[in-house]
Amino acid sequence: MHQSHKVAVIGASGTLGAVALRKLLEADTFTVTVIRRAGSSSAFPANLKVIDVDYSSVDSLKSAFKDQDSILSLVPTFAVDAQQAFIDAAVEAGVSRFIPSEFSANLTHPNARTLPVFAPKVKIQEYLVEKAKNTGLTYTFIYCGGWLDAGSHRSFLISSTGDTTNIFDGGDVAFSASTLDTVASAIVATLAHLEETKNRSIHVHSLVTTQNHLLALAKEVAPEKPWHTVNLKLEDLTAKANVRLAKGLVDFETFAPYIFRAIFDPSFGACYERTDNQLLGITYSSDEDVKDILRDLLKNRTKD
Predict the structure, then answer these.
(1) pLDDT > 80? residue 303
(2) Taking the alpha carbons of 187, 196, 100, 147 in that order, is the dihedral positive or negative?
(3) How many helices (H) and strands (E) does the chain have?
(4) DSSP label of 136
(5) CA distance 242 to 239
(6) Cα 268 off chain centre by
(7) Which of 104-108, 195-199, 235-239, 293-297 has the lowest mean pLDDT?
(8) Which of 80, 98, 222, 295 has the fewest CB atoms within 10 Å, i.e. is most exposed?
(9) CA gap 304, 151 in Å, rounded
């Protein structure tokens, strides 16, 4: 009898986590366990196995990871450091695959790796690569570009209200972008293609687009909205961010320009020339698909 692949998911209630968890359960080929931080109020379906752990305790994590084949980490950017303990516990528990929290900026590009906001992610990657050399643990880094439909709190690509969009470097810069559904599908497909995705980075996207093209589609969907724009230069924004960082100000205002740089600047690997879409069975989105996404974003925003 075929043994079901056991996956432990950390951060399963977040923006991407909720979509990835749903996709894993729908696939019906995995035995899924949710690893929840002790004291968290996140709720999950009653029939799902949930283990509460102390994220800082390797012993607590090791006990939760026992008998798991893969660990999927979907922790938010500010919690990326916690993954070192996850990796140590995974090694001790005999886990065979670790997928760290990436899913957006293309950290295979040397320029993107120098951006201060990603320093903790780069450190975790280097730690994983070292561990994979002399333990049974393997890894996959998954990159999907900017998120098209992550809602108002992450509307980096285009306004989710129809009001004002910040346009970077003229708005005609091509970049890779993905829906949350595409990102989640890439995760599930990676776990179904363990050999082909072993100890490497994979790149997928729903489409390559520009901010001006997204705005043009948005105006078709909601012509009644103002769709104002503010033109900004990435170079100016990052220069200001560098000044703030030098003063020790480590907040969203400081780090956001570095994220914009990674999403929109081609010299930071923002537009994927080659993808693993075919390997992982990821389909591309059409303009009509994007219009549907924009309709949903605007509709959900109106409900808020």
Answers:
(1) no
(2) negative
(3) 11, 12
(4) S
(5) 5
(6) 17
(7) 293-297
(8) 295
(9) 11
**Which helix (H) or strand (E) element contains residue 260?**
helix 252-264
Q: What angle do CA 244, 250, 254 make, to 5 degrees?
A: 50
By the 8 A CB rule, do 114 and 105 touch? Answer: no
Average pLDDT value for residue range 101-124: 97
Q: Is 134 helix (H, G, I), strand (E, B) or coil?
A: helix
What's the rounded Cα separation, in Å, for the pair 112 and 141? 14
In the structure, what pLDDT confidence band is assigned to residue 31 with cuts at 50, 70 and 90? very high
27: Cα separation from own chain's centroid: 20
Instruction: For residue 83, give both structure tokens.
Output: 């993954």
Reduce the DSSP state of residue 84 to 3 states and report it.
helix
Residue-wise pLDDT for 56-86, tens only, equals 999 999 999 999 999 999 999 889 999 999 9
pLDDT in tens, 161-219: 899 999 999 999 999 999 999 999 999 999 999 999 999 999 999 999 999 999 999 99
Q: Which residue has the tokens 């829906």?
A: 179
Q: Which residue has the tokens 């740089």?
A: 261
Question: Can you tell me the distance from the alpha carbon of 89 to that of 83, in angstroms, rounded to the nearest whole number?
Answer: 10
Tell me phi and psi for residue 203, to 5 degrees: -120, 130
